[in-house]
Amino acid sequence: MDPIHQFNIHKIFTIGHIGNQEIAFTNSSAYMLLAVAVIGLLMLATSRNLVPGRLQSVAEISYEFVANTIRSTAGAEGMKFFPLIFSLFMFIAVSNMIGIIPYTFTVASHLIITAALALLVFFIVLVYGFWKNGLKFFKLFVPSGIPVFILPLVVFIEVFSFFLRPVSHSVRLFANMLAGHIALKVFASFVPLLAALGIAGYFGAVLPLGMVIALTALELLVAFLQAYVFTILTCIYINDAIHPGH
Q1: In the 8-state DSSP scheme, what is residue 1?
Q2: pLDDT tens, 164-215?
Q3: CA-CA distance, 228 to 237, in Å (whole number)?
Q4: How far apart, in whole angstroms, are the C-alpha atoms of residue 90 and residue 35?
Q5: What CA–CA distance (Å, rounded) separates 29 from 177?
Q6: pLDDT of residue 204
Q7: What's the 3-state SS for 131-182?
Q8: Given its phi and psi angles, is residue 94 left (phi above 0), alpha (psi -120 to 50 degrees) or beta?
Q9: With 0-12 CB in 10 A as exposed, 13-18 as middle and 19+ as buried, what is 91?
Q10: 49: pLDDT confidence band, cut at 50, 70 and 90?
Q11: Rounded mean pLDDT of 25-31?
Q12: What is the pTM for the complete model shown?
């Protein structure tokens, strides 16, 4: 009945040690590998038929969806980052969908996972921005048309918001998945509690059961939307590295 118990990390086996630190294969690692395996099977199992089957249709729709998102936000030059962005979108979407299945584990419900993905994007943007633009990358922090007397304040805000990107990028995904699964577990726990009261309890359990079904449908939508939001923010940040001028 504990809504937080579903987020516990359990060690499956020990891989090795680095000094006194144990390196373990956990349930989180297992579900990350499962998500990668599902994506790999989806991509490898598709054929190149002129009339696509179901798996091929899903793969092609996913490809075109991510490609169109990149072109609309970062332009044609942003397509060089397609492997990275497509991998992020598919990993987050598939792992979120797997996490909705009862008695599974939601990878994105742990901040360390979402923070690692957000920091990966942040450092890629930072390195590529300086590699492509040199010192002109600092144009990102100096908007055009700003009066000189408030320019220092605006630059400070721009720099501060830039370094806060990994925080907002990671916490948004983490918080949505965490809150949604807690709400699901809380309402689901009312069903057996009310059903244990007898015939009257069975009728009372209909309401929380209906809420669980509705929340599950909502979580399916949120699972996809959060993958999309993470992806489109990645595209926007990469666009800043490609075109740092405002």
Answers
A1: -
A2: 999 999 999 999 999 988 888 888 888 888 777 777 777 777 888 888 888 8
A3: 14
A4: 9
A5: 18
A6: 77
A7: HHHHHHHHHHHCCCCCCHHHHHHHHHHHHHHHHCHHHHHHHHHHHHHHHHHH
A8: alpha
A9: buried
A10: low
A11: 93
A12: 0.89
The single residue listed with the structure tokens 């294969």 is 25
Residue 80: CB partners within 8 Å, gap ≥ 6?
Answer: none
Longest dimension (CA), the chain: 74
pLDDT of residue 47: 67
Whether residue 61 is predicted with pLDDT greater than 60 in this model: the reply is yes
Contact indicator for 26, 14 with CB cutoff of 8 Å: no
DSSP state for residue 106 in the 8-state scheme: -
Give the C-alpha separation, 127 to 241, whole Å. Answer: 9
Which three-class secondary structure state does DSSP give residue 210?
helix
Find the DSSP H helices in the chain. Answer: 27-45, 54-74, 82-100, 111-133, 151-163, 165-195, 199-204, 206-242
| pLDDT band at residue 1 using 50, 70 and 90 as cut-offs | low
Show Cβ contacts of residue 108 under 8 Å, excluding neighbours closer than 6 positions: 92, 95, 96, 99, 114, 173, 174, 177, 226
Q: Which contacts of 72-75 are long-range, i.e. CB under 8 A and separated by 24 or more positions?
A: 73/232, 73/235, 73/236, 73/239, 74/235, 74/236, 74/238, 74/239, 74/242, 75/239, 75/242, 75/243
Give dist(CA 44, CA 38) in Å, integer.
Answer: 10
